[in-house]
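Entry 12.
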Amino acid sequence: MAPDRTRLCELCSQDIKPRGWTTHRKACEVIAEKRRRDQLIVDAIRQENGTSTFVLQLHEPEPARTFSRDDIKMEHHPSSGIESEVFAFNDFKRRPAVPLEAPSNTEPWRPFHSRLEFEVAELALEAGLNNKQTDRLIKICHRCAVGKENFTFKNHKDIHVKWEAASFHITKFTKEVISVPYDGKTWNFDLHYRDLWGLASDLLGDPRIFPHFTFDAQRLSKFDGETFVRFIDEPYTAQDFWDVQSQLPPGGKPLAFILYADKTRLSSFGTVKGYPVVARLANLPTGIRNGRGVGSGYVVGWLPIVEEDKDYAGKPSWVNFKNAVWHESFQRITSSLASKSRVGQWFTCMDGVERWFFLVVLILSADYEEQCVMSLTRGVMSLWPCPICLVPRDALSDTSKTYTRRTADDSRAAVTTARAKDTMEELEEVLKVLGLRNIENALWAIQYSDVHRALSHDRCHFNHGGVWSRHLWVELQKYLARLGRAKVSQVDKACVSFPRWRDLRHPNQVMNVSFADSGMHEDISKMIIYATHNILTEDESPLGYLLLRCIRLYLEADIYAAFEVHTTATISEGRGAVQALTAVMKQYIIKTEDDDESDKDWNFPKLHMLTHLFDDIEAKGASRNYNTKPNEQMHGPLKDWYQDRTNFKDFAEQILRIDHWFHVADDIRRRLLDLDDHLMFTSQGQANDDNDEDEDKDENAQRPASDFLPGLNDGSLHVKLGSSQAPQTFALIEDTHRNDDAFTNFRVRLNSFLNDFLPACNIPLPDGKRIQLKSDVAVTAHQFLRVNFESLVDWRQHTDYLRCNPCFYNAPRFDCVFIQTQTNVIIGRLLFLFDCPVGEDLFPLALVHPFDARTGTVRAKPRAQAEFFSVRSILRGALLVHDAGLDYLLVDMVDTDMFLRVKEMHLQAGHVVRI
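Predicted 3D structure (tokens):
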């Protein structure tokens, strides 16, 4: 048979078969047009941000070559044999496009008899139906069956049998019994775990996940107009991944694991606990690795929990025994890593290339208590409490100093030296000096991995659930309580009235919050400065005011830690924020020493951990790579399954079975979707090929002028209006808002705006005449605005969801925005969003109440000075909190982009921030 002829699509550089060419070509043209229109908006935004104030030169200027601003340079590890490349910003892709290929399995629902049976079983699994409810569902399906597909289920047992038969799709759990001696007895514990290499090979063999793997370390740089500036985000762009690959034999590829472990309460009262271990692959991008579904986090172990025994509780030997049980269990879980870290593992990948993988533990994600168990250090009461460095216990509050870092080799040598001593007292003395335990660390067996280096800063527990919730917040509550009940009530009211913002929670009676999850505490910390700055004044409460300054600097250090992408400059600025916090904290500690009501000890490990925060970012990438938050979120389903799907006996096995079934269901569902996409693409291609001739004739047909104007009718790329209201005439609008100065002469001012705005945008006036909209012309108002914007931090698209609604959940909500004018960026409040008809086109416009920028605050202009703007000049949303009179405070801590955006505005305005 003759080979299929192909045509090259110059838009995507792919060879396309004749069948389906028209469909593919149309899709490419739509994508290209959207990118072009998006780029016009991005270029306009970037033009305003032409000089970057947060980028630092790393190298001498490049030799005389032609580079454009924002070009991306990608350098690969020398052992990869790949040459460095420079990409235009819009052409840079971190991962290749995944082609739509015919699925190899045309019946992906197997071992279920039909797709119908799988979908019924999947529904029962997702809904958590018990056995009786599942049987009822099956009976209903039999009554509704029309004979198109086989439906053989008789009861819930049949479904369970099929799930077990399908379990081979994903590496299954193994149950073993581990034995650990103590006090002359052998103690046995059940351990459930997945083979980590088996899980990795599952992902390497997944056609949808494999193209997203990165096997070689990279160094990425962005051209700032003078030089290429290094930036890091993923683990494989940071230093440790590079160093690991440098130690491997030629041709070796690191397959790097991120491991997490922590106890969680399963029962309502916390009497029953689970101890899951979660694994992720650092070779995958954050969007997949920290997301949900295939390629994200997998429960790979269920550690035994040693119940307290009254005969041994409190004894140091008992504590050592519990640590020994942990490491014996972890040694089993990581056994495949230990062997394959030394000699490697050859594997033929989906692209047909055979690669030599070396399995390593790059990152350990855990709370402080778990980090002490992982590193076998003695914890908070030891002479050297930090599991990463040898800082004395009485120096934990001073983050301006650095100390000798621990290494796995040093710890192992110390244990070996101690065990050579003649007496237990001498052994204990050697280990006590270093704060170590006389136990073999399971992670020592994994080559190219250092447990102390792998331990990482955890914003979830160290910052929000530690420094803030247990220390700064408690101190702040104390000073507010001293001022009396009225001031406490004032803070509560200020937090309740705090403007709404997407994903920002507003707790009632915030002053009574003591126990809450770290996410809630993070939200409280973002609001509290604005709720208390006029209460804890320097005159009214000098120590409270000084504490507020500490909190502000803590928030700055935390927001730098949250950056999704870091340059050397932002890392330096982050270190500066930590040092500024330390300096003001020293002042606060000294002044509170004379306070008779304060006995606070600021020497605690989680404050000291800020010392290592930006070292971790340089070594392992952005903090989201090792934040425990994505792993903590996996606890919720485990608790639900314990409550709703177990008989409370041998519950670990039952929970892990449900977890495995969910992964299997997700795998089958994705294969079904791939099959559906392929069938739809094939059928559309055949239908469109039959109409190629007619379509070619239509290509030269006349198109509306608006089709050639980017975004004239379609605001979905940069901005999109929503929540449409009934059409209103100008006369009705002016009558409805007759008592609002902002709407005075609404139509006349709009005519004037349009007559200036359209020519300025090179859009001809209808029939070449000035616009004179009549009072009976109707416009469509909107109460919702979606704004896509390019983040200043990671240069990716992010989205704000803004409201312009007089009654949003029974309260008025008119959000504020940043607006790009011809001369600068201003801030304003949305008053009215509408589509205005001009000729044959609709223009999305906004009536905005502008603010004057002042040092530290912004002031609202008189409402009569409200102005019209195109909604496409809106850069993104802004969050303003009322201060006093016409003054407002701009909240810069809602996200990382907002922080940098506001900082740049202050610098450009010449504002001096007093610390």
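Annotation: The longest helix spans residues 651-689. The chain has a mean pLDDT of 87.
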